[in-house]
Amino acid sequence: MLLAWTFALPALAEDGYDLWLRYKPLPEAQARQYRELGAELVAPVQTPTQQAARDELVRGLGGLLGREPAQAAAVRRNGALVVGTPASVPQLASLQGDLEGLGEEGYLIREARIDGRKATVVAANSDVGALYGSFHLLRLVQSGEPLAGVDVRESPRVKLRVLNHWDNLDRYVERGYAGESIWDWHRLPDWLDPRYTDYARANASIGINGTVLNNVNTSAQALTPLYLEKTAALASVFRAYGIKVYLSARFSAPIEIGGLATADPLDPAVRQWWKDKADEIYRTIPDFGGFLVKANSEGQPGPQDYGRNHADGANMLAEALAPHGGIVMWRAFVYSHEEPDDRAKQAYTEFVPHDGVFADNVLVQVKNGAIDFQPREPFHPLFGAMPRTPLMMEFQITKEYLGFATHLVYLGPMYEEVLRADTHARGPGSTVAKIIDGSLESHALTGMAGVANIGVDRNWSGSHFDQANWYVYGRMAWDPHASAEEIARDWARMTFSTDPAVVEPVVSMMMGSHQAVVDYMTPLGLHHLMGRGHHYGPGPWVEGGPRADWTSVYYHRADARGIGFDRSATGSNAVAQYAPPVAEQFGSIDTVPEDFLLWFHHVPWDHRMASGRSLWDELVSRYGRGVDYVRGMRRTWSTLEGKVDQERHHQVAVFLGIQEKEAQWWRDASVAYFQTFSRRPLPAGEAEPPHDVEYYKSLQFPFAPGDGK
Ligand code: GCV
Predict the structure, then answer these.
(1) What contacts 518, CB < 8 A, 6 or more positions away?
(2) Residues 250-267: pLDDT tens digits?
(3) Quick one: DSSP state of residue 149?
(4) What confidence tens digit (pLDDT) does each residue in 78-87 have?
(5) N or C, where is the chain less crowded by C-beta within 10 Å?
(6) The Glycosyl hydrolase family 67 C-terminal domain covers which part of the protein (predicted)?
(7) Residues labelled catalytic
(8) Which domains does the chain show, CATH number per domain?
(9) Whole-angstrom Cα distance, residue 603 to residue 540?
């Protein structure tokens, strides 16, 4: 009886904790090709990073192939796996020349003769390069890729590949939808939750090499000795995986925890305080990465409080960190209470005059678009406008404006769209990716930041598919020119199955999911239409309150004539912040891509669209198209029942149901609301919203997760 019951349990139930590093046994037909590779492993364990690489290979190959490789100092049989650097594995010395140009973090994977026998080699110039190469090799095996003739040569195109945690010290995560913060500050530094190691493994597997532990809206407490000791404990776990820790620094910390009367960046006592603080940090954490700063933005303190500018503030911190090799990531997400101009223009206005003035160890961190991580934004006009300053990309991985963790939205296509956008800063082909990787303006200091979607939920990200967004962020930070679709395919193979009958439908669901959320929330360039404060659900009617640019009506400007924000020369002229060819394209209603039409123009309801429909009809049909896509994803996913383990299949299915309901709600509420301006009937075949606008306005969600505190 007991036996029968035991066998009745779903054998392959998975809760998602293992992420894309599941290492479940490969089907025998696939495993066969790795028999020799999986038999013997030559990999040193003299350093913590070497140990991490070998542990991962033993765990990974052991799981995938059903037995752990025997460990050896020399290759005794054909096909062995050899991992290391010429310094750590003398047999790899002959590859020294081939390793040139791969830098500190690059690696190669290829077949070579070692100790007179055929071997698969993962070779690098450093231990961390060998660790990255080991993860790459495991990815190939997880995906069932043949290794015969393998020839991989990889090095990151971006230097700093960083997660930004918006985690408060009380474990609340701002805009977090995966439970509370994984940093258990109270029990640190003594209790090192094993999750920290798994976090580091996951990050290293995609090349992430830095983490900012605390929210940009930070308390100065994070810089006190109590918290520095806790930060040091986390750093001690992450170090072996090539990950540095960074902290968000509150600009007014010299007042709050330093007892000074001012935080003026030109005040000698303030400057000395930061130098002393930096010295103290590096005594505790010798490889500390540096500071991330949100200053003079949304009420945060900053240099402008003292009549100084962003460069004054950033350079003061840079001076304190420079002797230790630390860097400053100074955010360009600024908009002041006093500034009456179009919010989309403010960062450019405040930062461009300081181009070339920032210290060498400062990066200016710029969100992908000029407003705030909206479902779709044109690329930020700062990209291309500050050639003498390294600009760091800031993407949001957590889906503050894209349906939280319940909506299946793969962000790869969105990241790709922004990175491939052509700024024309130095003529055609001046893509955002080339600004981020430093190649356009020959910057050596380069970076990409992703606002993390990680919390204590068993599946880390609040949903199984949101893991893909962490994954694609890391892969694109490594290579901003990479393909979102190929990355989705890698992820799906590792996360669900190598069976093409699973992979292809999953990839196809993912690839259209970003366009779908744009369609059912903010089609045709609309933006900032969500519920107030928590940002959950539709709120196109939001108006009033402390400031106009925290309302929806400020952005959509719907009236009897039409809809959209005129940012052309007849309006706020934000288009003029782009290079002339882009300004020209975006500035004309005839040439602007329809995806950005209402971002840049106030357009009459009867304007003829490419489809031949009026703007009103097109708008309504886009909303419907978005909802239909979600229905399609539900259908596709239901066909995968039995091909994906039951536990994860069930949760995804339920979440898709939530997504469909919420997509319909967005569509109905938006159509009902905008119809009060357009005063036009719905196009034929489009269902009337089941309620009037007053109903949708009356819905309240006081405890929706993630709101700022
Ligand atoms: C961390 C938006 C979010 C805030 C966030 C801010 C920022 O305004 O709603 O929660 O604050 O961006 O990026 O600083």
Answers:
(1) 375, 376, 595, 626
(2) 999 999 999 999 999 999
(3) T
(4) 899 999 999 9
(5) N
(6) 462-685
(7) 298, 372, 400
(8) 22-154 (3.30.379.10), 160-495 (3.20.20.80), 519-565+602-698 (3.90.1330.10)
(9) 17
